[in-house]
Amino acid sequence: xxxxxxxxxxxxxxxxxxxxxxxxxxxxxxxxxxxxxxxxxxxxxxxxxxxxxxxxxxxxxxxxxxxxxxxxxxxxxxxxxxxxxxxxxxxxxxxxxxxx
Length: 100
Prior knowledge:
Order of helices and strands: HHHHHH
Number of domains: 2
Largest sheet: none
Oligomer: single chain
């Protein structure tokens, strides 16, 4: 497994654990991110902040497309408007057809 796959696995684990969150979701999510050994992840992957943000954004888009019926619903889930969501999909190389 390469370092980029390790980052994706860690992000997937965070997604799974989101179901366990209570109270202030944003604060709890940030705490869980803080608990991860990001310096090690970034060191192993060779990613710098822009690359890490790109990986996180792509992972979130993939998950939204997998769970929602339309681009509008996926965009709403991520808290962005549909146009912004489509621009991000295009930037990350996703096909622009509706999710299945």
